[in-house]
């Protein structure tokens, strides 16, 4: 605990009979700290990577950072958060190290914030608040959109996308989606099925059910771009999705489209997005993530059609404890069964 009673953010190297805690620091400073920890206290079987993302932290998680741990016998890394674009999964897999993320902790939080941002962008809530704060009262000229009857296109219909779809259907939106594999009627979410199988029936959790196709329409990515009034990006950042939305994709969208991104910033080419806003092609954007965080494209700061959050969609008063709980649940499951609850790779 810190002097003011707050929990100290740390990296923990865990062994059955030993927990070694390292101070959070930058990548360059963490390398010798890890080397020394292994030399003095190794071997370690698991790394719990629990950091304050607002401060300096050792990333990416790659061979240069964790080689001493791997050489000492590391078998598991568990990290807070669902994304793993800053992790060298191929390296971990080749060395027999399992990587587990925290999808349960962030799933509903991200989906709830996405729904909020969709409604804010449709209603022009940020712009109306600005008018109020400037003493102008309501901006009657602002083009608000009634979400009822609009088509919401979801790119990436996984757990979060499914929750967003269910939430926004309550506001009368028609849901279309694009993903690598079409959802089958009455099937369970792909994460839910994988999770249950990988747990070997050790733990049972409620699994999300996917609505029938009559409710959520599967379309190609190209058709989604052409038909959507609102586009919500829910896909992970990979080599294939880097700049998934760029100039040619904006050109295929409807006039006055609304774009919401709570996935990863680099899924969108920010320069192209600014051009689309300036041209009037895109009416408004609502963004929780940015291409070069924590730097934000200056035109996004000043443009009147933007709603911006500082990668804060999941932040609330219970996030920290639930994040810790899920990480250590992964460690416990791995110790008991040889498999963490939420594995990303199969080492």
Notes on the structure:
The protein is of the alpha/beta class. It has 2 domains: 10-104 and 317-337, 3-Layer(aba) Sandwich (Rossmann fold), CATH 3.40.50.720; 107-308, NAD(P)-binding Rossmann-like Domain (Rossmann fold), CATH 3.40.50. Helix content is 37%, strand content 16%. The protein is built from 12 helices and 12 strands. The strands form 2 sheets. The chain has a 7-stranded parallel β-sheet, sandwiched between helices. β9, α9 (247-252) and β10 (257-261) form a beta-alpha-beta unit. α1 runs parallel beside α2 and α4 (103-123) packs parallel to α6 (159-169). The model is unreliable at 5-10 and 187-214 (pLDDT under 50).
List the helices and strands and how they pair.
Layout: E1 10-15, E2 18-23, H1 27-41, E3 46-49, H2 63-72, E4 76-79, H3 89-94, E5 98-100, H4 103-123, H5 125-133, E6 151-155, H6 159-169, E7 174-178, H7 190-198, E8 216-218, H8 221-227, E9 230-233, H9 247-252, E10 257-261, H10 270-279, E11 282-287, H11 298-302, E12 306-308, H12 319-337
Parallel strand pairs: 3-4, 4-5, 6-7, 6-9, 7-8, 9-10, 10-11, 11-12
Antiparallel strand pairs: 1-2, 1-3
Helix pairs in contact: 1-2, 4-6
